[in-house]
Amino acid sequence: MGRPPCCDKTNVKRGLWTPEEDAKILAYVANHGIGNWTAVPKKAGLNRCGKSCRLRYTNYLRPDLKHDSFTPEEEELIITLHGAIGSRWSCIAKRLPGRTDNDVKNYWNTKLRKKLMKMGIDPVTHKPVSQVISDLGNISSLTNTNSQNNLILDHTKDEQVQPLQHQVQYHQFTNQENFQQHVLSEVASSSSSSSSSNLTRLNSPISYSCNTSQAQINSNFDWSDFLHNDEPLVWTDIQQIQQCDIQRVMSSLTLSGIMQNEGEISNNFNSNGDDKQGGSSEGFEDVACDASKEYQGHKKCEGNSFSGNSFVDGILDKDSEIRATFPEILDASFDY
DNA sequence: AATATCCGCAACCGCTCCGAC
DNA sequence: CGTCGGAGCGGTTGCGGATAT
Length: 336
Known about the structure:
Blueprint: H1 19-32, H2 40-44, H3 50-61, H4 72-85, H5 89-94, H6 101-118, E1 121-122, E2 127-128, H7 129-152, H8 164-170, H9 176-189, H10 198-203, H11 223-228, H12 235-255, H13 262-273, H14 282-296, H15 309-325, H16 328-331
Antiparallel strand pairs: 1-2
Helix pairs in contact: 4-12, 7-15, 12-13, 12-14, 13-14, 14-15
This protein binds a DNA duplex through residues 2-3, 6, 14-17, 35-38, 49-52, 54-56, 58-60, 87-90, 101-103, 105-107, 109-111, 194-197, 200.
């Protein structure tokens, strides 16, 4: 037995709102302020569910809302935050002044998800599709290996037989320490976690520190602090996110063997990390460009600031490399 | 011009969270 | 401590305009 409905659904109007209804809500809010939405329909003279009134106001009528299209900067930030925290739309929307969670969610579902998929990047994991396939292959082989090991009790391979979910997750973390912190936090929160968010939590660490052994910029940055802070987003926040995210991915590239000269990358980050002033994204661009050069060797680094194109190129090149190495994945159909 | 299909967005639904009592 | 109910969240639906055939 669930909760009783908040109102008599059969006797309230549904569907699109008329300008007259909007005017009534706006007039009501202007006179009484926001609060007690269940009482709003009666007091405002509306034949609507209170919840519907709240949604209409918060998602459309609020005076501080922007109704123009998303800017490239907002787009970039949504992708970055989604990669870090998953589909916590309200958290993401808090970082985008004038945007609602519904706006962000719709924009993601209709535009950004498709855009990433076109680029060959899995919108759920934010990794190249071929790497996702590769991971799935690893899961399959690990499962087989694991069961085989169990059968023959070959304990010499114990190190390779890590818990499956953790094997898959590990590459998302900048180093083992952060990964372990995440695992510990998962264990700690497992008793109180809600059922609906388990998948998101697995794919998206709630928070992690950026202090890696390879680079020490933004060592105090923490997603959790950042996302619980209600202050409006400022440019330095964006830079922090970009640097943190780039650093995280750079580290994983280094770990996976794409980047060879770890020290040089680290130097780039360190020199960049000191520059936290000014309204430029040069630092981010430089790091992305340098890293891309590092990997690509011959490719010219170009593109507008904040685009990160060269970095995406790096990921996609790796994607091509994997596809070339395992051509059979091109023929394989799969669902995920 | 008519119809089919696609796409974006507003709105709804079901659920959890959290504070008041 | 348990219950109630308002608020908020994420996922999904469906309408209506745009575009393709």
